[in-house]
Amino acid sequence: MTGTERKVFQKYYPPDFDPSKIPRAKGQKNRQFVQRVMTPFNMQCNTCHEYIYKGKKFNMKRETAEGETYLGLKLFRFYFRCPNCLAEITFKTDLENCDYQNEHGATRLFEAVKLYQDQQKQVDEQEAEDAKDPMKMLEKRTMQSRQEMEEMGNLEDLQESSRTKECIDTIGFLSSTDPHIAQAQRIKMMEDEDDRMARELMGITSEGRIERRIKDDEDNSDGADEDDKDIPGPSASVVPSTSSMLKPAIPKLGMDDSGNSRKRNEQRDRFAGIKLIKKAKPSEPSTSSTASSTSSAPPPLPSSAASSGLSLLADYGSGSDSD
Asked: Distances from the Cα of 191 to the Cαs of 177, 185, 188, 197, in angstroms?
């Protein structure tokens, strides 16, 4: 057969062609074939402990496993050597689990899928055994109902705790528990207290004005100041000035501080009923003076505008001599 005939899809068969007459080569019954295969799982060599990962390509020898079938299907075995120590490693197909089974020369490493499949297989086998025993089924249902009740109770507890947490001010709680914020507030309160004490010592009001107030320790000085306000002198004004309020009271000569208020009260009682009469002017005639003397006396002055006791006595004496 030539090269061109080999590439043709439709070949010519003569009418007298008999395929049984074609000679066949005699071979071994369990013949091995060299095949390019990738490792189906992660493994570690038992000789040199070299790691061989899934998907690494090797030229493997394939043979049919004798005496092993699954539902009439043949199982195949693969041979290859470790790339580090050249130790022989074998594995074969597992049609029942749609996987490959490790035989010898290496150890299969952990795989989550394989572990899940094994666990699921064990669960299915256990359920099949329990289904045959009615008492085990009843016990299993009781355990499931009890577990559901416990889960519902835990869920209700979580819902109740979440409702209580809804009323909590999380931002305020975090700000109060934050050590940096608490320290800043403490420092601010201390600074405000220092400013307040400084203002009190300096006499500075909230409006920024400076006021000095003299606080007397004795009550007698307070009584004397009140009496001075009640009976001011002739030259004293009704409304005291701010400068006089700021100056301290100066005691008068010849008067005792302890009996000052008592003497002033006696003088006030003595001269309470005295009526003042205006002195007649010299330019006016005598008729006017007599008329003024016979006329009714003016009402007494208020205590705020009255003179001291000695000045009132002098004025009264001078008026009686002129008459």
From this structure: 22, 10, 5, 10
